[in-house]
């Protein structure tokens, strides 16, 4: 990118951004560079509160969620039952529990009180706008 008003050329190469700044005579007077955050968060493991369950809710956790380039923005837990496909898909937003752990409580009532197999995928988003699938889990509700 070239910005004539500021005499700036911005070059993005792999995971770096380099700015070349020129004076009125076309002489380069300064360069700056920055690492770009291009990777989404990661998690060590995904756990749940136990399967099978007979309760009215269950919990799912993403453990040790980290992001090397920027801070974690959010972790989401899209959840649905196998019965009738994804007709009851809900993207539940997780809560930060401390020490890199994110969790969510899935209320069976939010999913038509259906019994059977629940599928939960987990996605992490960082402050740079990157996202990554962190894992998945299944819980059987009796």
Question: Can you characterise this structure?
Answer:
A hairpin with an 8-residue loop joins strand 7 and strand 8. Helices cover 0% and strands 57% of the residues. With 142 residues, the chain is mainly β. It has two domains: 34 residues, no CATH class; 97 residues, Immunoglobulin-like (Sandwich), CATH 2.60.40. The protein has no helices and twelve strands. The protein starts with a strand and ends with a strand. Strands 1-2-3-4 form a four-stranded antiparallel beta sheet, with no helix packed on it. The mean pLDDT is 88. Pfam families: GBS_Bsp-like. This is GBS Bsp-like repeat protein. InterPro entries: GBS_Bsp-like (IPR013688), YD (IPR006530).
Short account of what is shown:
This protein is mostly beta strands and 142 residues long.
Throw out a few tags for this protein.
4-stranded antiparallel beta sheet; single chain; mainly beta; Immunoglobulin-like; 142 residues; 0% helix
Approximate strand percentage: over 45%
Low-confidence stretches: none
Count up the helices: 0
| Computed structural class | mainly beta
> How many β-strands, per DSSP?
12
Strand order of the largest sheet: 1-2-3-4
Overall mean pLDDT stands at 88
InterPro entries: GBS_Bsp-like (IPR013688), YD (IPR006530)
Protein name: GBS Bsp-like repeat protein
């Amino acid at each position: 990118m070239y910005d004539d008003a500021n005499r700036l050329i911005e070059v993005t190469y792999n995971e770096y951004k380099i700015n070349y700044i020129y004076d009125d005579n076309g002489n380069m007077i300064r360069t700056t560079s920055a690492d770009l955050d291009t990777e989404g968060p990661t998690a060590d493991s995904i756990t749940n509160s136990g399967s099978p369950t007979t309760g009215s809710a269950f919990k799912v956790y993403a453990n040790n969620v980290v992001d090397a380039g920027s801070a974690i923005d959010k972790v989401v837990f899209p959840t649905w039952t196998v019965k009738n496909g994804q007709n009851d898909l809900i993207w539940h937003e997780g809560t930060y529990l401390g020490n890199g752990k994110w969790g969510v409580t899935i209320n069976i009532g939010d999913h038509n009180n259906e019994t059977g197999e629940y599928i939960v995928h987990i996605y992490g988003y960082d402050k740079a706008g990157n996202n990554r699938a962190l894992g998945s889990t299944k819980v059987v509700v009796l």
